[in-house]
Specification:
Chain A is about 0% helix and about 55% strand. By secondary structure, chain A is mostly beta strands. By secondary structure, chain B is mainly beta. The chains are: A mainly beta, B mainly beta.
Chain lengths: ~110, ~110
């Protein structure tokens, strides 16, 4: 298995632009998680899905952030409009059940100028 | 509510010496406990977990951790540190009941000095 796949690996954009981050979880995993990592705040859970349904989005910082999971093999995290304070590394992770460890993707490093 | 604390931001150890990275947790019931490692510019990698059973858990790369219920701790240990162990280590916890996700600690940076 290729593991969790994220794209792009790096994204540089200007303030006000729309940014879309993509994730392909490991096949057969029912849970998908989006995290954000910064030096100041550490690792933050943004939202997670179970069987493509959003379960908890309380970590989404504001309405500029949205996430979708149209099918079991694809999820997106969108920021519109982006702001410099959104600059961070965004990780996607998946797990087969809620009892198992999570498998993390390589992350997308987002820089908003 | 569940929480996890990693009291040390940084741990320095000489190569060949034993290492310990500390973790304490708080849950209302029984915990599932995990350790992850993050190398520079990489995602988190799973090291080991405690679900039930033996309090001493062995994981990848020679790491182990001991679950101590009375002290609500799950410290990560290795008998002999390698320079290549230098990385950021995260402890995580979740309750066995309910649908709560993993809660991660803030991370401890381990530096192994040759």
């Amino acid at each position: 298995d290729a593991g969790v796949i994220q794209s792009p690996r790096h994204e540089v954009t200007e303030m006000g632009q729309e940014v879309t981050l993509r994730c392909k979880p490991i096949s057969g995993h029912d849970y998908l998680f989006w995290y954000r990592q910064t030096m100041m705040r550490g690792l933050e859970l943004l939202i997670y899905f179970n069987n493509n349904v959003p379960i908890d989005d309380s970590g989404m910082p504001e309405d500029r952030f949205s996430a979708k999971m149209p099918n079991a093999s694809f999820s997106t995290l969108k920021i519109q409009p982006s702001e410099p304070r959104d600059s961070a590394v965004y990780f996607c992770a998946s797990s087969p059940t809620r009892y198992n460890e999570q498998f993390f993707g390589p992350g997308t490093r987002l820089t908003v100028l | 509510a569940q929480s996890v604390a990693q009291p040390e931001d940084q741990v320095n150890v000489a190569e060949g010496n034993p290492l310990t990275v500390k973790c304490t947790y708080s849950v209302s019931g029984n915990p599932y406990l995990f350790w992850y490692v993050q190398y520079p510019n990489r995602g988190l990698q799973f090291l080991l977990k405690y679900i039930t059973g033996d309090n001493l858990v062995k994981g990848s790369y020679g790491f182990e951790a001991e679950f101590n219920k009375s002290q609500t701790s799950f410290h990560l240990k290795k008998p002999s540190a390698l320079v290549s162990d230098s990385a950021l280590y995260f402890c995580a916890v979740r309750e066995t009941s309910g649908n709560t996700p993993l809660v991660f600690g803030k991370g401890t940076r381990l530096s192994v000095i040759a």
